[in-house]
Amino acid sequence: MRKVEWPVSLEHDQPDGTRVHLRPIRRRDRSGWTEVREHNQAWLRPWEATLPPGSPPGPATFAALVRLLSEQARHGRALPWLIHLTEQGATRVVGQLTVSGIVGGSAAWGQVGYWVDQRVAGRGIVPTAVAMAVDHCFATLEMHRIEIAIRPENAASLRVVAKLGFRPEGLRPRYLHIDGDWRDHLVFALNAEEVPEGLLRRWERLRG
Question: Which GO MF terms are attached to this record (predicted)?
Answer without folding.
Answer: protein-N-terminal-alanine acetyltransferase activity
